[in-house]
Amino acid sequence: MCAHILVAEDNVHQAELVRRYLEHDGHSVVVVHDGRAAIDETRRRNPDLLVLDVMMPLVDGIDVMRAIRTESDVPIVLLTARSTEDDVLLGFDLGADDYITKPFRPRQMVARVRTILRRTGRARETSATVLKVGDLTVDPIRHEVRIEDELITLTPAEFRLLAKMAAQPQRVFTREQLLEDGFITARTVDVHMMKLRRKIEKDSRRPERLLTVYGIGYKLV
Prior knowledge:
By secondary structure, the chain is α/β, with parallel strands linked by helices. It contains eight helices and twelve strands. Strands 2-1-3-4-5 form a five-stranded parallel beta sheet, with helices on both faces. The chain is elongated, with a radius of gyration of 19 Å. The model has no long low-confidence stretch (mean pLDDT 84).
């Protein structure tokens, strides 16, 4: 099962830990580090679930939840060091679906997220999700890639690589992260990227979709 999850956490290390465990469970994850960005990204991305830290700059998590609850019923999991009964009750009164106190065990957090997604009906099979990035469509069920109405023929390795990136557009993937999908060497990743550009770009020498982030890796935009 997978979901599109927004994580709002100002502690960069903590946010990376949450992101890593959620992605390992099959979810696509976007991370922001302040309350204003949490509100903006919730409106823009309409995530399946929001993991929300209470103590954040610009707008704290409680006020973020107040704002979001006026316009969305997205499931919200609060992360906080506040553990008094009054704090917990306030969180639930404002519409939190779960309340996790710090420090917490990441695997338990993932399990509770999974439970909420099942209960709210927002979890879905990864293979059933048609991915769209601009006019590029990746259909995992039919194993098809189209640009507008034109069918693009890819090898299985190229398709797997493109689908991984299309699930999280704008995210920068390192070569090491792409190697996790079975590519043997970093050089092999580069070769697949070159071949993909020839198929999905108007001019592979001046890519507009599949971009190189120098010194890091690649992203699909």
